C-alpha cells in the first residue's frame, strides 16, 4: 500500500486535539445576546473575558482559552445560520468595508449556510489572507514597514494601541500563534484536511472581523484620520509566465482521474484537489490556486520526508519546532547540514519551476502574495493559474503507477510533460541578466534606424578623432576582440568585423540560449551577476539616451531651432555613435561570456573561482567597473 493511502492525518496529536476536540469539550450553550448588542455591535468585553492567562507571567493560556471560547464560536455559527443573506448584509456588511474586500467575507457567509467542508476551508484561507492585508493597512496608521509575518503583525504594539491588547489576544488564539489554533498556517501549509477544520471557527473569525471594523471606525473618528489601502500587486509581463499550453476540459478531466490514482495525493486531501480543478473549470482562478498550492506543498512534503527518511516531518510541528514548508523543501541542505534529496527526485527543471514561481524575488511569488492578501482575488489572471495547475498535473503523472501509462501518454498530457522536462529558470538573477542583455541589444539595434543628417555634414566636424578617451576605447576594442575571436562560434563572428551588429545579435542569442544550471548558484557567481546586471543596466540607459537625444536633436535640426554650439554638439554625437555602438555590443558580449564561464568554473569547483579571478583580473576590470559606460556618458 502506498504511503499516501496509509496517512490519515497530517496533524500531530496535540495539534489535532487543539483544533478538532478542545473547543468542543465544554457542552454548555452560550447566548449570542451576551456578545451582540441590540444594534448589532460586538460586545468585545464579553468576548475577551473568555481569554485565560497563565498565573506565572500573565501570558495567554491558549489551551484554556480555546476551551472557553468553544461555546462562543458555536453560538456565533448558529446565529449566522439563522440569518438570511439580506439580514447579514444589513447588519454586518458596513463593518466589513475596512477590509477592502467585503465580497470575500460575504462569500464566507454563504459558505457557512451549507457547511461544505472543502468550501469552509477555502473560505477560511481567503478570510485570513484578506484580514491580514487589512490589519497591515491599519498598522500603517501608527508605524512603518508592516511586518511580513502575521504572528509579528498581531503581536505588534501598533495594533494593540488601536484595537486594544485584549482584542489582539483573541485574534492570536485563532490565527498567528503556533501555541493557539493557528488556523491560517495549518491550512495554507497543507496540514489540515477538509473535515478537520470546524466551521464554527470560520464563523467566529467572520464575526470578529466585523467587530474589528466597529472598533476601527471609532478610532478613526476620534483621531480624525483616514484608513488608506495599499495597492494590490499586479502580475506584469504575463508572457514570461507562459510555460505550459492552455488547459482545456479534456485535460482537466484526465487530471481528475490522475488525482484519484496518483501516489502524490494524500487520500484525505482528495476533496481539495477535485475542488481546485472544478474551480479552474468554473473560471474561479484564485480559488483554484489557493486550493492547489497547499496540496502541492503537502505532496512535496510527502516526497521530502520519504526521500530524506524523516517521516515524522510529515506532521505539523509543535510550537517548539518548525513546520516542514516549501522553504526547507527547496533548500540545498537539511537543518542537519545533510544534502536534501528532494532535488534528486524532482530533478532540476521541476526545482527551477518551483523556485521561479514561489521563491525568486523577481518572480511572481504566487503563494506568498496570495496568502498575505497582496493580490486582488477577483482579478487573478488565468495565465498564472494555468501554469500552477499544469505543473501540478505533471507531478501527478510522474508520481503514479506504471499501470497509468495510457493516461500519461495521452495526447493532451504529453505536451505538458515535455514542457516540464525542459523548463529553464526565468527569474533567477542569471536569467534576468540574460534578458537584460538581449533587451539592451534590441535597443542598440534601433540606432541604425535613427533619423540623421547627411554624411557630408557630419564629416565637417573635426577633433573627435583626437579625443584620448575615444582612442583608448578603440584600442581596447581591437585588443579584446582579437582575443575573443578564437572562442566565438564560427557562424557568429567574422575576422574582419567580429562585432558586426548582425553577428553580435546572433552570438548573444546563442550565448543566452546556453543552458546554465541556476539551482543553488554559488555565492561568487551571484556576486558577479549583481555587478554585471548593473553594467548591463547602464548600457541600456546609454542606449535609450542616445535614441531619445538623437530623435529630439534631429527634429530641432530640421526645424532649424538649434544654436550654433548645439548643432556642433549634435553632429559630434552622430560621429560618436559610429564607435559607441561597437563598444556597447562588446560590453554585452563580455557580460554574457563572463557569466557563462564563471558559472561553469564555480559549478565544477567553487575553489577554482579565486584562481579564475587571478588569471582574468585585467580583463574583468574592463567591464566589471563602469569605466566603459561612464566614458560613453561623458562623450554624449
Description:
With 636 residues, this protein is an all-alpha fold. The chain has helices at 3-6, 13-20, 44-48, 62-82, 85-92, 102-112, 117-139, 150-154, 157-163, 165-174, 183-188, 199-223, 249-261, 270-281, 285-307, 326-329, 342-346, 348-359, 366-371, 382-398, 405-408, 414-421, 429-445, 455-459, 468-484, 501-513, 523-558, 564-604, 608-615, 617-624, 627-635. The protein folds into 3 domains: 13-223, no CATH class; 238-422, no CATH class; 429-635, no CATH class. It contains 31 helices and no strands. It is globular, with a radius of gyration of 31 Å. Mean pLDDT is 87; it is low at 616-620 and 622-636.
List keywords for this structure.
636 residues; mainly alpha; 3 domains; 31 helices; 0% strand; disordered C terminus
Quick structural gist:
With 636 residues, the protein is mostly helical.
Task: Give the overall shape, derived from the CA principal axes.
Answer: globular
**Structural class of the secondary structure composition?**
mainly alpha
Low-pLDDT residue spans: 616-620, 622-636
Number of domains: 3
Write the layout of secondary structure elements.
Layout: H1 3-6, H2 13-20, H3 44-48, H4 62-82, H5 85-92, H6 102-112, H7 117-139, H8 150-154, H9 157-163, H10 165-174, H11 183-188, H12 199-223, H13 249-261, H14 270-281, H15 285-307, H16 326-329, H17 342-346, H18 348-359, H19 366-371, H20 382-398, H21 405-408, H22 414-421, H23 429-445, H24 455-459, H25 468-484, H26 501-513, H27 523-558, H28 564-604, H29 608-615, H30 617-624, H31 627-635
Helix pairs in contact: 4-12, 6-7, 6-12, 7-12, 9-10, 13-14, 14-15, 15-20, 23-26, 23-27, 23-28, 25-28, 26-28, 27-28, 27-31, 28-31
Protein name: Endoplasmic reticulum membrane-associated RNA degradation protein isoform X2
Domain DUF4209: 131-211
InterPro entries: DUF4209, ERMARD
